[in-house]
Here is the input.
Amino acid sequence: MMKIGYGIGIVIKSYQPKKNRIVLFDEQLGMIDAIALHGNIMAGSLIHYHLIPQSNEFYCLRDVELKEVPFDLARYDILFLHHLLELCYYFIPIGSCVIGVFDLLQFLYSADRRYWNSATQKLFIFRLLVVIGFYSTRLFVEEEIMNRLLKASLDKEGTINLAKQHEVIIGCWLRNCVSEHPQVQKFNTVHFLTRDLKI
Here is the structure.
């Protein structure tokens, strides 16, 4: 069990109008509900803080320090940012702490997103859902293809060159995953996956 104290996390959701209540993906605790005493922290922000437990899954954050704000990502593609955060909110339950999710999300703050194309963004989301452990039950992806997609580079100028059939597989797989979620009717950003049906 983690010793409660200084932490680092990514704000997944800030509630309106109570902006001081947030859903946070903490590096060690995973997804938690929290109150940030300083309030008004935007979704997508990378923050440092002191954690004070209020209950098993609810925390108070003090001495919040803003480390990164996703202005670059939002300028490049605001829909991608919102879709990514929405998927995290709905696919990662409170209390879940899956190894690899935080590192994958933190990668976004160092990647040069100016060069990311639609296929790169969808590959990133594909990796996120695989790490979380959510798989489409309607579209089976062969193990060899799955491994190739999981090993494709995301950090060389943020670009990848996928074979056309792999782009199609990713697009179909993601749409199936989202459509199978029991709360899909609450999603606001599903059109991210359908805006470019060339893949």
About this structure: The chain has five helices and five strands. The chain has a mean pLDDT of 81.
